[in-house]
Amino acid sequence: MKRRHPIDYSRVKTRREVLIRQRRDLWTPEQVGSLARHFRLKPGMGLLDAGCGFGYALRTWGRFCMPGGKLVGLDRDRKLLAQAARFCTKEGLGKAARFATGEICSMPFENNTFDMTLAHVVFCHLAEPEKALDEMIRVTRSGGCVAVFDNAMTGSPGSRWNNWHQPTTAERLLMYEVGLRMTDGRRKVGFGDWSVGCHVPAWMEGRGLIDVGVRTNERVVWIAPPYRSPGQRTAYTNTREHMREPVRWDRVSKSESDQMRAGGLARSKFDRCRRRNRLEHRAFRKAMKRRTAAYAWSSPFWCIWGFKP
Ligand SMILES: C[S@@+](CC[C@H](N)C(=O)[O-])C[C@H]1O[C@@H](n2cnc3c(N)ncnc32)[C@H](O)[C@@H]1O
Predict the structure, then answer these.
(1) Average pLDDT for residues 191-220, to the nearest whole number?
(2) Phi/psi at 278 (nearest 5 deg)?
(3) Partner of 132 for a Cys bridge, out of 31, 41, 104, 259, CB 3.0 to 4.6 A?
(4) Span 137-179, pLDDT tens digits
């Protein structure tokens, strides 16, 4: 039986939280420009964003192909594509952009069609990411660029600090173990791999791509009272809104129990970790309410690119 992927990006809440809000300042303008130079983007080029969602990467790097560029977004979700088209129109890219519904592992395009093909946060959701890479290389013309942006988490949860709870070493070890086993289970049941970015440079080299390069995202998300700057005020409002979302601490979903089983994680450890997360969440809410909350956080997220010989 085909398992349903636990992350549904067509859900309104997920769209708002992840695909719009998180993307807004994911790559800084300096990094966007620097990556565009590495990708050798020029006006008039054809760019494919495979698994484009709302078209964040298509709109961000598509600009460097203007004027004259041809932008194509592919996704298997029609609702997301319709919104991507609206965003493109709003940002003056409507005439240059078109969209196709399809699977990243069997795309409806001829060989050697695009000057650049990219996938932004798609590989970590795929059961067979190497097949997607093969397909991206197939549709890219000789001399063109193939780029994969994705998570490169290998167990240690990213760097983080907050002023409402300092976890003990025992708590940290518990969180690492639960995180590692759930991640391992996630990969084994075919929901994707949060460490996929780490594999991509070798996959690209192994397929003969040249001038392979890798950069990490430099973003650190942080808030600190009195949340004075415009960026801080937005981050504080977003966080407060996020904290209002109800969390079902008492429920274990089917996909969670599948991942637990596949990753060899004991239910008792999962429950212990949840109880501590619940307490921490409560302390976080209180600190937000009193406007005393401060935190800083970053996680490993890479961009890997190479050129088709
Ligand atoms: C995390 S979202 C990223 C969307 C967009 N690239 C971005 O960064 O905002 C993952 C996207 O990949 C799409 N997707 C997942 N599996 C896919 C597949 N096998 N073929 C095509 N699209 C897929 C989803 O519909 C979703 O839009």
Answers:
(1) 96
(2) -65, -45
(3) 104
(4) 999 999 999 999 999 988 765 688 999 988 899 999 999 999 9
Can you tell me the distance from the alpha carbon of 137 to that of 139, in angstroms, rounded to the nearest whole number? Answer: 6
- Are 200 and 148 in contact by the 8 Å Cβ rule? The answer is yes
Q: Are 167 and 279 in contact (CB under 8 A)?
A: no
> Alpha carbon of 35 to those of 27, 220, 250: distances in Å?
10, 19, 44
Q: What is the pLDDT of residues 97-151, one digit of tens each?
A: 999 999 999 999 999 999 999 999 999 999 999 999 999 999 999 999 999 999 9
Q: Which of 231, 219, 193, 198 is nearest to 298 (CA)?
A: 219
Alpha helices in 140-266 (DSSP H): 169-188, 196-206, 230-244, 254-263
Distance 235 CA to ligand 1 centre (A): 25
Report the C-alpha gap between 302 and 287 in whole angstroms: 32
Residues with CB under 6 A from ligand 1: 9, 19, 23, 51-54, 56-57, 75-77, 80, 103-104, 120-122, 125-126
Instruction: Say whether 123 sits in a helix, a strand or coil.
Output: helix
CB 168 within 8 A of CB 175: no
The structure's pTM equals: 0.91
The CATH number of 1-153+194-220+300-309 is: 3.40.50.150
The count of C-alpha atoms lying within 13 angstroms of the C-alpha of 302, restricted to the half-sphere facing its C-beta, is 21
3-state secondary structure of 13: helix
Of all protein residues, whose CA lies closest to atom 8 belonging to ligand 1?
Answer: 120
Q: What is the pLDDT of residue 115?
A: 98
Q: Are strands 221-223 and 114-120 parallel, antiparallel or unpaired?
A: unpaired
Evaluate whether 197 touches 151 at the Cβ level (below 8 Å).
yes
